[in-house]
Amino acid sequence: MVEFATTKVRVTGRVQGVGFRAWTEREARRLGLTGWVRNEPDGAVTAFLAGRPEAVATMLERLHRGPLGASVADVTMLPSDGEAIPSDFRVTR
Description:
Pfam families: Acylphosphatase (PF00708). This protein is α+β, with helices and mostly antiparallel strands.
């Protein structure tokens, strides 16, 4: 039986206008994750990650750093109960 983990996070700091969503999509796909990432009206970025627990943990570590040009202030876990698990990873609006 393959273990599976999901998490939803809110990333704050300088995370919009620096390619954060595209970077998140690339990194998540490299790790074999499914889910989504989107900008929020208040300047934050929210992401839903699903996949192998070790891949989700690695992505969480990467989100704390972000891409070049980003300045991550905080990564906060959000409730993700009942979230539908997508078949791929994508940038949403």
